[in-house]
Amino acid sequence: MNPPRFETICVHHAEEPLRYEGAASPPIFQASTFLFPDSQEFVTRDRSGATRYDYSRTGNPTTRILEEKLAALEGGGAARAFGSGMAAISAAILSGVQAGDHIVCIDTAYGPARQFLDHYLPRLGITTTYVGGISVAEFEQACRPQTRVIYLESPSSLIFAVQDLAAVAAMASSRGITTICDNSYSAAYFQQPLRHGVNLVVHSGTKYLAGHSDVVCGFVVGDAERMQRLVAHEGVLLGGILDPFAAWLTLRGLRTLAVRLERHQSSGLAMARMLEIHPKVAAIHHPGLATHPDREIARRQMSGTSGMFSFELKEGTRERTFGLVDRLKYFGIGVSWGGFESLAIPVRLHRPSEREGRWGIRLSVGLEHPDDLIEDLQAALAAS
Ligand SMILES: *Cc1c(COP(=O)(O)O)cnc(C)c1O
Predict the structure, then answer these.
(1) Are 45 and 65 members of one domain?
(2) pTM score, two decimals?
């Protein structure tokens, strides 16, 4: 038999219902501490929590099921859950650097990740150079002898810029540099960066993985050895763990991840195709469309696209852009994305090569009926 596929991992991997009275959904181990039968077992307990739980900062059985699923979905040796995507991102970056090191990062990376690099790490004497990420040569030119980490996010979450993961990872690996990739957009389903040679994958699980706009969580996934060090240091010592109830909610979200993403993909593409030929639309940024500048790399390393993209109006002034967003009926105005509900926000967009941004609209296409969403957008465009 073949090893279990994505959907089957979401449903069955790491589940042991018969250990828990046959409960089809695992219990929430809402416990800070775990007790031992005698002093001998207590003093010889495995502090890593791998074989015996002792304290929920080192490990928790509910959270462990989730971590094992994420590792299997991304094709990694191990995964660690964190209390947010930013806790995962900061832990992953810190695990790869020490004082005086240098980082190369794509300039379309998630804003708070950039703030961590620009405003926090300089305290440790760690500096960052940004690159557009269009060619491997750009990364190579930005690397110095002190470069220890290359940070990627592919596709990025405003203009959906794509990097050639295999090529960048190979270049980095030949120089002993750790590559980290934010894979939140693809939610482990449309792309597995570890399979392209990337060393660590980070996720905002808040988005598609959990999928119900009711939990904030994050993950780091990598090979077993790297993850063991990361868990012992940035995991256990910085202590940004995921609470067991939030882990349980995320497990519940994962059950339907593949079916949700298929619908996000088809609805997102249907909307993008409508917008692509709409007379009032100037540009559309969707890595699944032939017009996307990185379409060829996207096709090579991704099996599909999720429900998030952005577009610009002709004469896309601030006033017209805000007006369109405000007219939408089914799209809420709010940060985050990847939930069951559709969202639309006005954003400043620019390609890496451009200095000045333009107003655009980022959509996270939800699980409403796609015809309702298309009609909503068409009506708002007609009035704009
Ligand atoms: C939201 C987001 C994050 C941060 O995740 P949190 O769970 O909010 O901490 C990281 N990367 C991307 C691309 C995001 O959209």
Answers:
(1) yes
(2) 0.97
For residue 23, the CA-to-ligand 1 centroid distance in Å is 32
Q: Which atom of ligand 1 is nearest to the CA of 216?
A: 7
Q: Which atom of ligand 1 lies nearest, measured to the CA of 217?
A: 7
Instruction: Look at residue 296 and tell me if it is in a domain.
Output: yes
Per-residue pLDDT of 171-219, as tens digits, reads: 999 999 999 999 999 999 999 999 999 999 999 999 999 999 999 999 9
Ligand 1 site, CB within 6 A: 84-86, 110, 153, 157, 182, 184, 204, 206-207, 216, 218
**Atom number, ligand 1, closest to the C-alpha of residue 89:** 10
Measured CA to CA, the distance from residue 227 to residue 230 in angstroms comes to 5
Domain contains 196: yes
- The residue from 254, 269, 294 where one domain ends is 254
Q: Which domain holds residue 106?
A: 6-254
> Across the chain, how many H-helices and E-strands are there?
13, 11
- Residue 1 belongs to some domain of the structure: no
Instruction: Give me 285's structure tokens.
Output: 């940024």
Question: How many domains, in total, are found in the chain?
Answer: 2
